[in-house]
Design goal:
mainly alpha, 2 domains, 6 helices, 9% strand
């Protein structure tokens, strides 16, 4: 849970403690108290849902950035083939170099699924990625 989500949760606990700790009947009916708690719970759910959606968008954007860099590099160097580590070091521009090898591997795996890039296993067991043969023939 994010910091903001924890703050909302803490607020819910605080309000619950106030309602239970005081004589809530003096201030709110039980229906009003339940409606208040339900409203706050729905608001916190919406906040957390938006945070999750934003995180998913960031992840998707990161993969798109990496894929664009890889495909751009392959357009300029159609015979290139390298490992994830070499792709991270040499193919990807500084603005996306902050991404981990795992994120780059995930982006490459999606390009392999889309048949835009091929994964080749070398004799020593290492993996390299290159432009898919079909894609190269079309260009």
């Amino acid at each position: 849970m994010t910091r903001h989500g924890l703050q909302v949760f803490a607020m819910l606990l605080f309000i619950h403690a106030i309602l239970v700790g005081t004589r809530s009947a003096d201030y709110l009916s039980s229906d009003q108290a339940m409606r208040l708690l339900t409203t706050i719970a729905m608001m916190s759910y919406e906040v957390i849902t938006v945070e999750v959606q934003n995180k998913v968008r960031q992840e998707y954007s990161a993969l798109e950035d990496i894929q664009a860099e890889v495909l751009g590099y392959l357009d300029e160097h159609p015979n290139a083939a390298d490992s994830v580590e070499a792709i991270q070091q040499w193919w990807i521009l500084q603005r996306v170099a902050r991404y981990s090898r795992a994120k780059i591997k995930q982006a490459l795996d999606q390009l392999v699924e889309a048949h835009l890039v091929e994964q080749k296993i070398l004799v020593d067991g290492s993996e390299v990625y290159a432009r898919a043969q079909y894609t190269q023939a079309v260009n």
